[in-house]
C-alpha cells in the first residue's frame, strides 16, 4: 500500500515510478477517489457539528417553552440523522474502492534499477566459476530416470503434472541440500532458524503482496487457508501488527519448507523435469530492518545466497533485474542464476529482493527506538531464496554428472550423505 499524503504531495513521482513498470498514470483516479471520500467525510463532520448545535438549541427552546421552535429544530435533527447513515455507507464504499486500487499497484522501483520490458534488459553484475567442459551433457531428467531414482510417471499418476517422485540417493541428496543450506545460514550468517505454518489466512498473503492480484497462482484449502508459495509469507508476517524495538533490528530468519504454487501464469513453460513444480522445497531468508540498513542488508543477503553456490562449486552469475522483470512487491531485486549443462544456459535459482516499506505498510509492521517519543516508522522487509532446493538438486546433478550417468556428491554435502561420494543406479 502507499501513503496517500505522499501521493497528494507529489503525484508526479508516483506516476513516474509506475510508468517505469509499464503502467499508465494512476494518481488521477486515486486522487479523485481521495477527494470524493474527504468531501463525504467533511459533509458528515459538518452535519454532526450541526446536530450538536441544534440539540443545544432544542434544550434552550424547551426551557423557554417555545414548542413550535423546538419542534422545528427536532425535525432538522431528524433529517440529519436520516442523511448520516448514507454518508457513512458512501465513505465506506469509496474507501474500499480506493484501497482496492492501491492494493493492486506494484512497488515503485529504486532509482538504480535498470529500465526495461523483460529479462532481456537485466544487467549482469558478476559471474563466478566456469562451466565444466562436458562432451555430451545430459539434463537432470535423463540422468534421474537412467539412475532409476526420479519418476515423473508415478508422480503424475498420483497428482498430475509438475510433480516428481525421488528415491534413495536423489531423495537423500535433496534432504542434504536443505540441511546444508540451513546450517550455513544459521552458523555463518546469523539467521535464526524458524519452523512456521504452511497454511495462512488472507491477511498474511495480502501483507506480502500475493493477494489480491495473484490469487490464481496460489492453492487454497476448502476452509479458506492458503498454502504458502514461499516461507517469505509466514516469516515476514511475524512482524505484522507490531511495533518492534529498533535496537533489535535487523531480525534475520530462515526456514526450510515445502512451497506450493499453481504456476497459473506459466502454462507451457518448463513442463519437462523439476524446474517449475507445484510443490518444492526451499530455504527462505527474510530480514526485517530499518530504512537506513536495508540497502546494506540486501547486499549481505545476496552474498549469503551466493555462498551456497560457491561452497557447492556451481558456476553462477548474479543479475540486477530491470523494472519489467521485478516481482510485484520488490523495489530492487538481484537474481542468482546457476549454470545448467543440460540446458546450456543459466537459470534462476535465487531471487533476493528489497521491498522497502511496501509490505510493512500492508501488514502494519513498524519500529521505534526504545524510549523514544517519536512516531513509529515502517520497517523495511527483504526476502531471498537461500536456495531453491529442487533447482539446486538439478544443478548438482547436471554439473556433477559422470559419463556413465552417475552423480558425484559435492564435498560440502558429503557429511550430510554419510560420507557417500557417488550416487549410482538404484543407490
Describe this structure in words.
- With 427 residues, this protein is of the alpha+beta class.
- The protein has 2 domains: 4-103, Orthogonal Bundle (Helix Hairpins); 119-423, BirA Bifunctional Protein, domain 2.
- It is 41% helix and 20% strand.
- The strands form 5 sheets. It has an 8-stranded mixed sheet. Strands 5-7-6 form a 3-stranded antiparallel sheet.
- A hairpin with a 5-residue loop joins strand 6 and strand 7 (226-227).
- The radius of gyration is 28 Å and the shape is elongated.
- The model has no long low-confidence stretch (mean pLDDT 93).
How would you classify the helix and strand content by structural class? alpha+beta
Integer-rounded radius of gyration = 28 Å
Give the overall form.
Answer: elongated
How much helicity do the residues have? Answer: 40-55%
Number of helices in the DSSP assignment: 12
Number of separate strands: 18
Largest sheet properties: 8 strands, mixed
Mean pLDDT: 93
Q: What's the CATH H-level superfamily name of the largest domain?
A: Bira Bifunctional Protein, Domain 2
For the termini, the CA-CA separation is 52 Å
CATH architecture title of the largest domain: 2-Layer Sandwich
Biggest sheet, spatial arrangement of strands: 1-11-12-13-16-10-9-4
Q: Into how many domains do the coordinates divide?
A: 2
CATH C-level class of the largest domain is Alpha Beta
- Flag low-confidence runs: none
* CATH topology assignment of the largest domain: BirA Bifunctional Protein, domain 2
Helix and strand element order = HHHHEHEHEHEEHEEHEEEHEEEHEEEHEE
Percent strand: 15-25%
Amino acid at each position: 500500500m502507499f501513503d496517500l499524503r505522499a501521493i497528494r504531495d507529489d503525484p508526479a513521482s508516483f506516476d513516474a515510478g509506475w510508468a517505469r513498470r509499464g503502467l499508465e498514470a494512476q494518481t488521477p483516479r486515486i486522487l479523485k477517489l481521495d477527494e470524493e471520500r474527504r468531501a463525504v467525510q467533511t459533509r458528515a463532520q459538518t452535519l454532526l457539528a450541526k446536530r450538536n448545535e441544534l440539540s443545544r438549541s432544542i434544550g434552550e427552546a424547551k426551557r423557554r417553552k417555545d414548542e413550535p421552535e423546538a419542534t422545528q429544530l427536532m425535525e432538522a435533527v431528524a433529517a440529519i440523522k436520516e442523511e448520516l447513515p448514507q454518508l457513512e455507507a458512501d465513505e465506506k464504499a469509496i474507501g474500499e474502492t480506493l484501497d482496492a486500487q492501491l492494493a493492486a499497484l506494484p512497488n515503485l522501483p529504486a532509482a538504480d534499477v535498470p529500465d526495461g520490458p523483460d529479462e532481456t534488459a537485466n544487467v549482469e553484475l558478476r559471474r563466478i566459476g566456469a562451466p565444466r567442459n562436458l562432451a555430451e551433457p545430459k539434463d537432470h531428467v535423463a540422468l534421474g530416470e537412467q539412475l532409476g531414482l526420479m519418476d515423473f510417471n508415478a508422480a503424475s499418476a498420483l497428482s498430475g503434472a509438475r510433480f516428481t517422485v525421488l528415491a534413495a540417493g536423489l531423495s537423500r541428496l535433496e534432504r542434504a541440500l536443505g540441511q546444508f543450506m540451513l546450517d550455513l545460514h544459521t552458523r555463518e550468517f546469523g539467521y535464526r532458524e524458524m519452523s512456521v505454518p504452511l497454511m495462512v489466512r488472507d491477511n498474511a498473503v495480502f501483507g506480502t503482496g500475493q493477494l489480491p492480484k495473484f490469487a490464481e497462482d496460489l492453492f487454497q484449502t476448502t476452509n479458506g487457508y492458503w498454502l504458502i508459495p514461499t516461507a517469505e509469507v509466514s516469516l515476514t508476517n511475524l512482524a505484522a501488527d507490531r511495533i518492534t524495538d529498533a535496537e533489535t533490528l535487523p531480525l534475520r530468519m530462515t526456514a526450510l519448507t515445502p512451497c506450493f504454487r499453481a504456476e497459473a501464469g506459466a502454462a507451457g513453460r518448463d513442463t519437462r523435469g523439476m524446474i517449475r513444480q507445484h510443490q518444492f522445497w526451499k530455504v527462505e531468508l527474510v530480514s526485517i530492518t530499518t530504512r537506513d540498513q536495508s540497502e546494506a542488508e540486501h547486499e549481505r543477503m545476496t552474498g549469503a545466497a551466493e555462498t551456497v553456490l560457491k561452497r557447492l562449486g556451481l558456476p553462477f552469475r548474479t543479475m540486477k533485474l530491470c523494472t519489467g522483470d521485478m516481482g510485484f512487491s520488490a523495489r530492487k531485486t538481484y537474481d542468482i542464476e546457476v549454470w545448467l549443462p543440460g540446458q546450456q544456459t543459466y537459470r534462476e535459482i535465487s531471487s533476493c529482493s528489497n521491498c522497502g516499506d511496501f509490505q510493512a505498510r500492508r501488514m502494519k509492521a513498524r519500529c521505534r527506538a526504545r524510549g523514544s517519543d517519536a512516531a513509529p516508522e515502517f520497517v523495511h522487509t527483504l526476502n531471498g531464496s537461500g536456495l531453491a532446493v529442487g533447482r539446486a538438486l538439478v544443478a548438482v546433478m547436471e554439473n556433477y554428472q559422470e559419463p556413465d550417468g552417475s552423480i558425484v556428491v559435492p564435498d560440502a554435502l558429503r557429511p550430510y550423505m554419510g560420507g557417500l561420494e557417488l550416487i549410482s543406479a538404484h543407490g
